[in-house]
């Protein structure tokens, strides 16, 4: 069961929900098959709330073309087939812009003289931690690397190989609605969209919903900082027949606990109540799953 | 000497385009021939990624010695222009091509440091 926690708007509580939900589920259901994965590889921060024991660490690589001038006839085929202008013919040279390369192999495979072999480039680190009986995976993009998608994709492959299919995978996703979010959510069984009840929250929620509709994904909404703003998010969800599974209250104490890097639900009973609702929703879905 | 401008039109009185990669036109003034030619770059609007290097490559082919533009190129485009040994002058994003040419002649434009 794969649950992606996502949002259109940043800072609405994806990590807060992911971390609290993971620990809550493992405690409440006495299960040791919870896997929390921080897929916000540009700035992973789930780990700030968890004191884990490092189990393993590995470098992750992506493949990019490297020009070998020896046999190159400067035919320019490589730049023609590159959709991202990552390969350019400049006079008597072929220049490769690593940051623009999406690793599709087209220039390399279609080069008539084999002058653009693909080579490894390190893009980040994947770390595996044990936090109580939770498995926590964090991937972090190296400084200077611009593309999150290959690392997200490899991280998902890693967890799928490493853990039982029966596990509950919680993907703490990146914010927004662009490629990294799509990579993190496209294979999830359910996407939980967390938002806040403000005009900004609604605006970005609509974008996220549009994206999920396009992906034909199932999703439900959690409202964070309920009771601030207005009722436009609730109205919208009602109109569109979108289920709101929980409402996390707005409480200064939550912010204080968060700022200390502690878990909210252990100190705020209302948070625990809301997590119960989400847990119930997840297990009902898991048990009702037809595969 | 050939001088390139990023512009919104193809005449001396056209407005400059402050953008490099997504400039609408590239105007080339050939001083020896006293001739103004233009390249229509407007299809770049459909390009989602890599507009900078693509425009820079065009410039590479047009072979100007000097580029007069507004904000200056980004990192990738700058790499290409360096390869082409183009001298880049910035801060000429608003006003007409003629006005910016005069400013260049009077040494009033700042050279792009990269």
Can you walk through the features of this model?
The complex is a heterodimer of chains A (291) and B (114). Chain A has 291 residues and is α/β, with parallel strands linked by helices. Chain A has two domains: 2-61 and 124-287, 3-Layer(aba) Sandwich (Rossmann fold), CATH 3.40.50.300; 67-116, Alpha-Beta Plaits, CATH 3.30.70.20. Chain A has nine helices and eleven strands. Chain A has helices spanning 14-28, 77-81, 106-109, 149-162, 179-185, 199-214, 232-240, 252-259, 269-287; strands at residues 2-6, 34-38, 53-65, 87-90, 93-96, 118-131, 134-141, 168-172, 190-195, 219-226, 244-249. In chain A, helix 4 (149-162) packs parallel to helix 5 (179-185). The radius of gyration of chain A is 22 Å and the shape is elongated. The termini of chain A are close together. The model of chain A has no long low-confidence stretch (mean pLDDT 95). Chain B has 114 residues and is α/β, with parallel strands linked by helices. Chain B has a single domain, classed as Dinitrogenase iron-molybdenum cofactor biosynthesis domain (Nucleotidyltransferase, domain 5). Chain B starts with a strand and ends with a strand. At the A-B interface, strand 4 of A face helix 1 and helix 2 of B.
Short structural summary:
By secondary structure, chain A is an alpha/beta fold. Chain A has helices at 14-28, 77-81, 106-109, 149-162, 179-185, 199-214, 232-240, 252-259, 269-287; strands at residues 2-6, 34-38, 53-65, 87-90, 93-96, 118-131, 134-141, 168-172, 190-195, 219-226, 244-249. Chain B has 3 helices and 6 strands.
What share of the residues of chain B does DSSP label as strand, in percent? 15-25%
For the record, the CATH class of chain B is Alpha Beta
Oligomer: heterodimer
Radius of gyration of chain A: 22 Å
CATH superfamily of chain B: Dinitrogenase iron-molybdenum cofactor biosynthesis domain
Considering DSSP H and I runs of 4 or more, what fraction of the residues of chain B is helical? 25-40%
Strand order across the largest sheet of chain B: 3-2-1-4-5-6
CATH class of the largest domain in chain A equals Alpha Beta
Broad structural category of chain A: alpha/beta
Most extensive chain contact?
A: A-B, 14 and 13 residues
- The H/E string of chain A reads EHEEHEEHEEHEHEHEHEHH
Widest β-sheet, arrangement of strands of chain A? 3-6-7-2-8-1-9-10-11
Largest sheet of chain B: 6 strands, mixed
Can you give the helix content of chain A as a percent range?
25-40%
- So, CATH architecture of the largest domain in chain A? 3-Layer(aba) Sandwich
């Amino acid at each position: 069961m794969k649950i992606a926690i996502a949002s259109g708007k940043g800072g609405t509580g994806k990590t807060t929900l992911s971390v609290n939900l993971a620990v809550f589920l493992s405690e409440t259901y006495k299960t040791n098959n919870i896997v929390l994965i921080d897929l916000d590889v540009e700035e992973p921060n789930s780990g700030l709330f968890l004191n884990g024991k490092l189990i393993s660490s590995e470098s992750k690589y992506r493949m990019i073309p490297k020009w070998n001038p020896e046999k190159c006839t400067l035919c320019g085929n490589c730049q023609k087939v590159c959709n991202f202008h990552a390969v350019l013919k400049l006079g008597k040279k072929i220049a490769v812009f690593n940051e623009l390369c999406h690793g599709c192999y087209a220039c390399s495979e279609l080069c008539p003289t084999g002058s653009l072999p693909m080579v490894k480039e390190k893009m980040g680190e994947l770390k595996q931690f044990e936090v109580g009986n939770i498995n926590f995976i964090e991937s972090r993009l190296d400084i200077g690397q611009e593309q999150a998608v290959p690392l997200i994709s490899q991280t998902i492959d890693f967890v799928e190989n490493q853990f039982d299919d029966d596990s509950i995978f919680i993907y703490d996703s990146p914010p927004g609605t662009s490629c990294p979010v799509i990579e993190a959510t496209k294979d999830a069984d359910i996407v939980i969209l967390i938002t806040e009840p403000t005009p900004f929250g609604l605006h970005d929620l609509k974008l996220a919903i549009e994206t999920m509709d396009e992906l034909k994904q199932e999703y439900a909404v959690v409202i964070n900082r309920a009771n601030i703003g207005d009722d436009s998010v609730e109205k919208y969800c009602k109109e569109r027949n979108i289920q709101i599974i929980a409402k996390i209250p707005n409480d200064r104490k939550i912010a204080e606990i968060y700022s200390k890097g502690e878990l909210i639900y252990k100190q705020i009973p209302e948070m625990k109540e809301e997590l119960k609702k989400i847990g119930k929703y997840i297990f009902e879905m898991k048990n009702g799953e037809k595969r | 000497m050939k001088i390139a401008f990023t512009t919104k039109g193809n005449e001396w009185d056209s407005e400059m385009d402050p953008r490099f990669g997504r400039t609408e036109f590239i105007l080339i003034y050939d001083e020896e021939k006293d001739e103004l030619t233009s390249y229509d770059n407007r299809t770049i609007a459909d390009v989602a990624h890599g507009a900078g290097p693509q425009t820079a490559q065009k410039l590479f082919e047009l072979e100007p010695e000097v580029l007069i533009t507004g904000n200056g190129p980004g990192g990738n485009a700058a790499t290409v222009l360096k390869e082409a040994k183009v001298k880049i002058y910035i801060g000429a994003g608003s006003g007409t091509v003629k006005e910016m040419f005069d400013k260049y002649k009077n040494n009033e434009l700042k050279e792009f440091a990269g």
